[in-house]
Amino acid sequence: MDIVVKTQASAALLRRDLRFVAIKEKALVYASFFKTGKGEYGEGDKFLGVTVPKQRVIAKKYSDLALPEISLLLESPIHEERLVALIILVSQYAKGDMVSQKKIYDFYLAHTTQINNWDLVDSSAQYIVGEYLLKRDRKMLYLLVRSKSLWERRIAIIATWAFIKRGDFADIFAITELLLSDKHDLIHKALGWMLREVGKRDEAALEEFLVKHIKVLPRTTLRYAIERFGSQKRIQYLKMK
């Protein structure tokens, strides 16, 4: 009888699999899309050219990857390695008990410097930070909001999606008020996106907030927030601005 030896999951093997399905031409497209040029928000980020569906297949294969190995991936300059690491973390958090979830939450916050593009934040913040803070003190969100890091501020915003889904809008309203003077377009877009999510569940609550802050809301935030309104109502709000 043949003896099957199971190879232990490792960052090195995962990297090998990513490179096997990489498409060089896509790497150039992704580098442009994620603004990796000098002075842009993703400056220096590097891409292999692996599609997100293929990254998810690989993440599933390595779903039991240990945190030290995930850390190696997060420290990589390669964007896809960091995204796969976060997809794995999200999966492990969802399946974990309270002890492992706390460990993953702490691990995530210890690696925010590597969660440094909008897709990395958006695919992970609500599922780890948001879910963990659902029934806990949320002061960590407000530390992140006041961070000089664009990505930590965006993590705080996107984390509130976990609350919004449960009809809890207090934190996204408070965070929006704190970030009204933020200059970055990616913050304006994230705020508008989350406010739009509020409107899907309670349009009256969103409108009450918009009317109160209409004069100081970034225009991009307002446009995102009112996307689901009828055309006449959208025009009305834009005129109020």
UniProtKB/TrEMBL annotation:
This is DNA alkylation repair protein. InterPro entries: ARM-type_fold, DNA_alkylation. CDD domains: AlkD_like. Pfam families: DNA_alkylation. It comes from the Bacteria.
